[in-house]
């Protein structure tokens, strides 16, 4: 198995929304805001080469939405999904599996593209299976009013219409489940129902793709919960349980949205679980 971090670009979100009830005087120490109170976040995906499978975890925001849509999110930086795939010697057509942690637009937008001939939508990875789970699929396709703006039909329905949709077999209870892919998944439901965080055994270490359970190192303290989370008290309990385990068992946490840090580790302190170290992926794994 070979794993590559895959940067797909940066965007901006309101700092207050990203840190919920935590005051700006505290969160700006780790995530400084611009004059509009917006903070920079990455859309860092992961590529796993495993035998004859090439697995992409999440896809970034994509490029098919309208100019009006993108104006809200200030996309910037030189990274792109296609550009960084090419640097690794791959093309979209090489991807065999696209694993989607959840179906919010900044995680699934790049999974679908606009057909230049018909202006219809189609999967951007023609030879891939797209993996979600039935619980989350139902949640996303029958969205509540609070999340409706994050679950865009054009990002989701073409996956099913193409016949390329696959489901990870999870149950009603959150926890860790095996998959048909070379990793297990941690199922959590504070941010959105049935989000899946891949748990990977790699080079003798436990590597966890944190998705929106832990967007950045700035979110490590328990009360630092996003205003976007649909069930913040559940996020609190999920974080408390997972972060203690991560500290005790020395997990490496792969950060999807931290613009400065690819990986972090945590440890137990008198104040609770706190940041231990940050790392570049290639300094830990080779």
Q: Helical percent range?
A: 10-25%
Proportion in β-strands = 25-35%
Structural class: alpha/beta
Uncertain segments of ≥5 residues (pLDDT<50)?
none
Strand order of the largest sheet: 9-10-11-12-13-14-15
The description of the largest β-sheet is: 7 strands, mixed
Number of strands: 15
Termini separation: 11 Å
Q: What would you note in describing this structure?
A:
By secondary structure, the protein is α/β, with parallel strands linked by helices. The protein contains 9 helices and 15 strands. The chain is 22% helix and 30% strand. It has a 7-stranded mixed beta sheet. A 6-stranded mixed beta sheet has the order 1-2-3-4-7-8. A two-stranded antiparallel sheet has the order 5-6. The longest helix is centred in the last third of the chain and has 18 residues, at 232-249.
């Amino acid at each position: 198995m070979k794993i590559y971090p895959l940067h797909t670009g940066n965007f901006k979100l309101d700092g207050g929304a990203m840190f919920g009830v935590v005051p700006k005087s505290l969160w700006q120490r780790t995530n400084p805001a611009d004059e509009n109170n917006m903070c920079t976040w990455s859309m860092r995906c992961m590529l796993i080469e495993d035998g004859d499978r090439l697995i992409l975890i999440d896809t970034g925001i994509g490029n098919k939405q309208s100019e009006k849509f993108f104006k809200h999110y200030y996309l910037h930086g030189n990274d792109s999904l296609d550009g960084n795939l090419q640097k690794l010697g791959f093309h979209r057509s090489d991807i065999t599996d696209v694993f989607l942690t959840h179906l919010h637009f900044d995680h699934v937008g790049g999974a679908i593209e606009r057909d230049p001939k018909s202006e219809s939508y189609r999967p951007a990875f023609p030879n891939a299976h797209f993996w979600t789970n039935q619980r989350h699929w139902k949640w996303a396709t029958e969205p509540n009013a609070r999340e409706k703006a994050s679950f865009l039909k054009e990002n989701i329905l073409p996956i099913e219409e193409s016949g390329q949709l696959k489901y990870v077999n999870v149950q009603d209870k959150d926890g860790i489940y095996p998959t048909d892919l070379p990793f297990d998944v941690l199922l959590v439901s504070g941010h959105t129902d049935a989000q899946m965080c891949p748990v990977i055994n790699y080079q003798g270490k436990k590597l966890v793709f944190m998705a929106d359970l832990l967007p950045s190192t700035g979110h490590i303290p328990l009360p630092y919960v996003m205003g976007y989370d649909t069930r913040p008290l559940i996020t609190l309990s999920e974080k408390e349980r997972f972060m203690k385990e991560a500290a005790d068992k020395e997990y490496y946490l792969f950060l999807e949205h931290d613009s400065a840090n690819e990986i972090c580790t945590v440890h137990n302190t008198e104040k609770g679980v706190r940041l231990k170290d940050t790392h570049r992926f290639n300094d830990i794994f080779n």
